[in-house]
Amino acid sequence: AEARLLYTSDAADDTAGVDLGRHRIRTRIELHRLLLAAGRSDEAATVRRELAAAFPRSIEAELDLGATLCADGRWGDATAAYASAANARPDDGGTAARLALSAVMAEQPGTAAALGTRLPPHVRGSQPSLALALAAAQLQLGDARAALRELDQASRPAGDPPAVALLRGEILLQLGRAE
Q: For every residue of 140-158, which 3-state class applies, written as one string?
């Protein structure tokens, strides 16, 4: 009932009067998820705008949107949603990993590769999935050496996760280097 009352076409244009106190952020995020799941994307967009206005560093709604779009195979749209979240939190490794992966899947390797130059090394090294996506972006761009550099920057003293080690081996094989 609240969703119908708040999100008529008239209410969607006027969000200034909506109270988004701290105790209500979880409720709004849950409402956003329900609206996405119900396919009510215009109403979900209104909730996202409200959340962004009240809590500019809160990225949960954008991440939820990105995940929904990924599940639908809409990789380009998911990339845009994750880019919005990454702009709000530029040093968040998990968000960067989601953005890089969706960009690779959308065949936008330049978007993913740009993250590699923007993120500090400790963020890049803390997310194996980010390293894999950045390396995959470099491979899409046709640069196996740059892909290997991405994996090298994410290497851990205790050893790489299996997926990273496998991709490293494949790239080394491609480069004609057995290590």
A: HCCCHHHHHHHHHHCCCCC
Sign of the dihedral defined by the CA atoms of residues 118, 70, 94, 133, in that order: negative
| 7 phi, psi to nearest 5 deg | -115, 40
As a whole number of angstroms, the distance between CA 109 and CA 33 comes to: 29
Count of CB atoms situated within 10 Å of the CB of 132: 23
CB 81 within 8 A of CB 69: yes
pLDDT digits (tens, 9 = 90+) for 16-51: 334 445 557 888 889 999 999 999 989 999 998 888
Residue 55 CB-density burial (10 A; 0-12 exposed, 13-18 middle, 19+ buried): middle
6 contact partners, CB below 8 Å, separation of at least 6: 18
Long-range contacts for 31-38 (Cβ within 8 Å, ≥24 apart)? 31/2, 31/3, 32/61, 32/64, 33/64, 34/3, 35/3, 35/7, 36/64, 36/65, 36/68, 37/68
Q: For the chain, how many residues are written?
A: 179
| Predicted structure pTM score | 0.77
CB-based contact 52:58 (threshold 8 Å):
yes
